[in-house]
Automatic annotation (TrEMBL):
Record organism: Lacticaseibacillus suilingensis
Alphabetized PANTHER family for the sequence: INOSITOL MONOPHOSPHATASE (PTHR20854), INOSITOL-1-MONOPHOSPHATASE-RELATED (PTHR20854:SF4)
SUPFAM superfamilies: Carbohydrate phosphatase (SSF56655)
Source organism superkingdom: Bacteria
Protein's recorded name: Inositol monophosphatase family protein
């Protein structure tokens, strides 16, 4: 797989997605709840997933697709080429703020990260990268984030986990430079890539983490389960992503 060509192709799709999303935002949204009152899906999430699946099938007929909003043939194994698609990451922000949401695509080969892209729709900013593609913002190379001590780093923590002090995350947040909560995993990974956050902890689905993990391969980001073990990209669970010192401090504190 030629990564530069994949990058061009995916960025082309994301630009079309962006235009379609901005157009759809001019019309009333159809909002439905899924598992609970804060778990939303809109007509735009569904339409954008359908669009991206169509593009992936046409360009990579051999690929499996794992997308959030149904429709996709579930990848029940990680063999071969797998695309993880989150058509709108931060649907609550999309509905309530009309900002701070992302479109994310992560590409894996036999379970190994190849490539990730995160489109910040309202800022028209795409971060992409992977093990063989240096992280870039709209094609401009990014300076790798610094590996700072935990107490000198801002960190992202899922709101419910910090507020409920799950896994000591309330206390850990107090020991950092401060906690920031964006409501979008994609925005958190973007902030880490830009050096604005040292790390992020949340309970995530595979499509929430696939793009960020792949991009992070290009700048030394460490991404594991909450117990420090390798992630299983077919299961939801606690994810700890951080530059090495922040990641190590999270794992030590959460498992103390
Ligand atoms: C959600 C966001 C949120 C995270 C949730 C995710 P969605 O994604 O990334 O920040 O805390 O766990 O489900 O559902 O809006 O795509
Ligand atoms: Ca969702
Ligand atoms: Ca998501
Ligand atoms: Ca989503």
């Amino acid at each position: 797989m030629e990564i530069k060509a994949l990058d061009e192709t995916v960025k082309g799709w994301l630009q079309i997605s962006r235009k379609q999303i901005l157009a759809a935002m001019q019309q009333p949204l159809t909002v439905a709840t899924k598992s609970n009152r804060n778990d939303l899906v809109t007509n735009v999430d569904k339409a954008n997933q359908a669009f991206l699946i169509q593009q992936i099938h046409a360009a990579f007929p051999e690929a499996s697709i794992e997308g959030e909003e149904g429709q996709a043939a579930k990848a029940d194994r990680l063999a071969g080429l797998v695309f993880f698609v989150d058509p709108i990451d931060g649907t609550m922000n999309f509905v309530k703020q009309q900002a701070n949401f992302a479109v994310m695509i992560g590409v894996y080969q036999d379970g190994q990260p190849l490539y990730g892209a995160i489109m910040d729709v309202m800022r028209n900013e795409v971060i992409s990268g992977g093990p063989d593609l240096s992280p870039n913002l709209n094609g401009e190379p990014l300076t790798p984030p610094l590996d700072r001590p935990f107490e000198a780093s801002l960190v992202g923590i899922s709101g419910p986990m910090a507020i409920k002090n799950r896994l000591h995350l309330g206390e850990l947040g107090l020991a950092s430079s401060g906690v920031r909560m964006s409501g979008s995993a994609g925005m958190e990974f973007k902030s880490i890539a830009l050096g604005r956050l040292g790390g992020y902890v949340s309970w995530l689905q595979p499509w929430d983490v696939a793009a960020g993990l792949a991009i992070g391969q290009g700048f030394g980001l460490v991404v594991t389960r909450g117990d420090g073990q390798p992630l299983d990209l077919l299961e939801a669970g606690v994810v700890v992503a951080g530059m090495p010192q922040v990641h190590a401090a999270f794992i030590a504190g959460m498992n103390a």
